[in-house]
Amino acid sequence: MSEDVKQSYKDLFSGFSKLNREERYQRLIQMGALSPEDVRFLSRNQGMEPSLAEKFIENVIGYFQMPIGVAANFVIDGKAYAIPMAVEETSIIAAASKTAKWIRESGQLTSEVHGREIIGQVQVAKVADYDRFAEVIEENREDLIRQANEDVAHGLVRRGGGVKDLYVRRVDRGDGSGDMAVIHVLADPCDAMGANIMNQVCEYLKLPIESLTGEQVTMCILSNLVDTKLTRARAVLNGIDADLGVRIEEASRFAEQDSYRAATNNKGVLNGIDPILIATGND
């Protein structure tokens, strides 16, 4: 890439985040990313003030709209639900509603939640003495939990949650240079998803951990692998035709054993998940 081209790209993006919406439109037209017709569409009154979007995200150019519908016939744990789904593809809501009706009339759909705790990670990328590190953390475990709950997590404690436990994991660095030490911090976030407060807890614990161990903390971050808080759902169908049951089982086995079928099978599963996440504002 020539220096002239590099400079032109730099000029196109320079200060982009500081531009107002109209200026962004003009810059995007200049880039060829939008046409004047695109800008007219994005500038239409879409039911919400553009200034509101600026409070949520960066580099706003408009709103993205999708149809939102309701999947009917769902009875879960004996209670009727209308499931919101935002999606542009036909048949997804119809298929979900039809299947839910089948289960409602000929079986049951139940769910259960195992555990409440979310996980935060405090990483030491290159621990000098893992065994000593783990020993010191275990010796001071209760005090570290107390400090976090009295300070950054005190709001969670008032609502019945807070930091509940922490422990150390040894993780091989994978390059032959030794181990990482990773402290897992477990907290009950009450009704919150808890990402922000868990990140704050981990950052808070960084200094006392470094002071106690003499090691340098590298990262403090929430984990999205929450195997301490699992939800299971179970669908039971009674009186199903034996031949149909066998065919459903074979379709499942096909997906388990063949990656090409699994990709399509899993895409179908995500067809049902994504619309609910979009409709309810989950990320």
Structural account:
- It is a single chain.
- The protein has about 280 residues and is of the alpha+beta class.
- The protein has 3 domains: about 50 residues, no CATH class; about 80 residues, no CATH class; about 110 residues, Alpha-Beta Plaits (2-Layer Sandwich), CATH 3.30.70.
- A 4-stranded antiparallel beta sheet has the order 5-6-4-7.
- The mean pLDDT is about 95.
Keywords:
23% strand, 283 residues, extended, two-stranded antiparallel ribbon, Alpha-Beta Plaits
Task: Report a brief summary of the structure.
The chain is of the alpha+beta class and 283 residues long. The chain is built from eleven helices and eight strands.
Assign the CATH superfamily of the largest domain.
Answer: Hydroxymethylglutaryl-CoA reductase, class I/II, NAD/NADP-binding domain
**General shape:** extended
In whole angstroms, the N-to-C terminal distance is 36 Å
Radius of gyration: 26 Å
Tally of extended strands?
Answer: 8
SSE sequence, one letter per element: HHHHEEHEEHHHEEHEEHH
Text of the CATH class of the largest domain:
Alpha Beta
How much β-strand is present in the residues?
Answer: 15-25%
Q: Supply the number of structural domains.
A: 3
